[in-house]
Design brief:
With about 500 residues, the protein is α+β, with helices and mostly antiparallel strands. It has five domains: about 70 residues, Beta Barrel (OB fold (Dihydrolipoamide Acetyltransferase, E2P)), CATH 2.40.50; about 120 residues, Helix Hairpins, CATH 1.10.287; about 80 residues, Beta Barrel (Elongation Factor Tu (Ef-tu), domain 3), CATH 2.40.30; about 80 residues, conserved putative lor/sdh protein from methanococcus maripaludis s2 fold; about 50 residues, no CATH class. Helices cover about 40% and strands about 25% of the residues. It contains seven helices and 25 strands. The strands form seven sheets. A six-stranded antiparallel β-barrel has the order 3-12-15-14-13-16. A hairpin with a 2-residue loop joins strand 13 and strand 14. Helix 5 packs antiparallel against helix 6. The longest helix is centred in the N-terminal third of the chain and has 58 residues. It is elongated.
Length: about 500
């Protein structure tokens, strides 16, 4: 009985399993037939819409700014050199690196003993020449008197000769007496000639004495100049640099003792491209006195000075390109010759141009503008200037149109877009300008006492920082919050 019951149970389970398999096969077959018989459903295609930032283009008159890098230098720089050889017996108290001097101040004195002795010798020679001149003049006077006496005597002998001729004609005199009178008159005339010759020699002696006096005077002046050359004086008010001598040193002729620099006569020398130089010329082809702004970055604090273009270089220079331009600075406290600075020059105003971000213009010189159906269309523009991250372009149909501020490879003509405001509003009517708002101020940091003390110590120990910049930075570090840019630059130089 047990065997029969177990056999029937097993047969029932096998039958049930086969039935389930057949049912499952039928379901699978029906599903395959339904899938094969159904037509495929294609989803409806939808156009992709991109969000873009737009700027309303407006034609204005812009003043482009040409930026370049240059170096500060002084218009008046004098090399202090020794004119003679000798030993430095004295130096001015301010004759040192960075010393301030005034015009005419005695800076250094070379031993003047030899020059003074030479001056005294030529002065003695001058006295001798003057005495010789006086003696020659007196000799001329005496010789003139002697000549006058000889002429008077010759006249008397001539009268005696004429009288003897008269006596001989009347038969009173003799021929011997006439000949004797004639011989005496001839001797008197010869004496006059000798005296005239002596007078000429005396006058020549006077001329020679005057020439000797003039030469002695020149020798005195030359000796005086050599004596003056032993004293080195400042030619103008300024500061000393490159001082390389001390008191007691033996210097040679033409040896450089230092440099005298006028710190109030500063100018900037910078080089621009030929194209940029051409934009700085006026209609006559001369350099315009365009305004110039000079900026020196000093540990996060900018020193700024103003000036104007003054001249340009006469030649390009071997191995150089572009043009070198000089700008004369106005009052420039804190600037020193040799500073490497940034120069900003205002060019001539450009009319009827549109300022756009540089990302709005592609390499082909075209921009994407918004059409009435919110689709993009390409417009060709003329690039006038590049101004940092912006460009100045010109096109007749561009003013008043909405221009895509940032182009991407996905954007092109015919693409449908939706405009965005800087706040994220998608209303195109509220878009006035898609450029990001200007920052209101630098990021501020709150420093710990240890970090603040480290920065203050670094600034106070830095001897190369100008006093004005050091005071400003210390004042900023004393505040509760400090600009992050200042902290970052100081820590970069510390190395922390």
């Amino acid at each position: 009985m047990r065997f029969l019951r177990q056999s029937l149970t097993g047969l029932f389970l096998v039958s049930l399993t086969l039935g389930l398999l057949v049912y499952a096969g039928a379901l699978v077959n029906d599903a395959v037939q339904v899938r094969l018989s159904d037509t495929p459903r294609v989803p409806q295609a939808r156009e992709r819409v991109f969000a873009v930032n737009v700027i309303t283009a407006g034609a204005t008159t812009e003043t482009p700014v040409l930026e370049a890098f240059g170096q500060v230098q002084s218009r008046r720089t004098l090399e202090l050199r020794s004119a003679t050889t000798g030993r430095l017996v004295s130096l001015a108290p301010g004759f040192e690196e960075g010393g301030h001097v005034t015009a005419g101040q005695l800076l250094a004195q070379i031993d003047p003993a030899d020059a003074e002795a030479a001056l005294e010798r030529v002065r003695s020679d001058l006295l001798d020449a003057e005495a010789e001149t006086r003696e020659a003049v007196r000799a001329v006077t005496l010789q003139q008197d002697t000549l006058a006496a000889a002429e008077e005597q010759a006249a008397l002998y001539e009268k005696a000769f004429q009288r003897q001729l008269g006596l001989e004609a009347r038969g009173v005199g003799t021929a011997a007496t006439v000949e004797a009178a004639e011989l005496s008159a001839s001797n008197a005339r010869a004496s006059v000639l000798n005296q005239r010759q002596s007078l000429a020699q005396a006058e020549a002696r006077v001329d020679q004495a005057k020439t000797l006096t003039a030469r002695s005077q020149l020798a005195v002046e030359e000796a005086q100049r050599r004596l003056d050359d032993t004293a080195i004086r400042a030619g103008f008010d300024g500061m000393l640099s490159d001082v390389s001598v001390v008191e007691g040193r033996l210097v040679s002729a033409n040896e450089q003792l230092g440099m005298l620099i006028d710190p109030d006569a500063l100018e900037v020398a910078f080089r621009v491209s030929t194209q940029g130089y051409a934009r700085l010329l006026d209609d006559a082809g001369t350099l315009r006195p365009a305004p110039v702004t000079v900026t020196l970055d000093v540990y996060g604090t900018d020193l700024v000075a103003t000036g104007a273009l003054s001249r340009d270089s006469a030649s390009v220079g071997e191995g150089q390109t572009g043009r070198q331009i000089f700008a004369r600075l106005d009052a420039a406290p804190g600037f020193k010759p040799g500073d490497f600075i940034t120069v900003s020059v205002q060019e001539a105003p450009v009319e009827n141009v549109v300022r756009l971000p540089a990302t709005a213009v592609d390499a082909n010189g075209s921009v994407l503008v918004l059409a009435e159906d919110e689709r993009l269309e390409a417009m060709q523009v003329t690039l006038v200037r590049r101004q940092g991250d912006d460009v100045l372009v010109r096109a007749d149909a561009l003013p008043g149109r909405d221009v895509v501020a940032e182009r991407t490879p996905l954007l092109g003509a015919g693409i449908k877009v939706r405009t965005l405001t800087p706040a994220g509003d998608t209303s195109a009517e509220q878009v006035a300008q898609a450029a990001p708002p200007a920052p209101t101020g630098p990021d501020m940091l709150e420093l710990t006492d240890a970090r603040r003390a480290k920065l203050v110590a670094f600034v106070e120990d830095n001897n190369r920082m100008p006093p004005e910049a050091k005071q400003r930075i210390l004042a900023q570090l004393a505040q509760t919050t400090v600009p992050a840019q200042v902290v970052q630059r100081l820590e970069d130089r510390i190395g922390g």
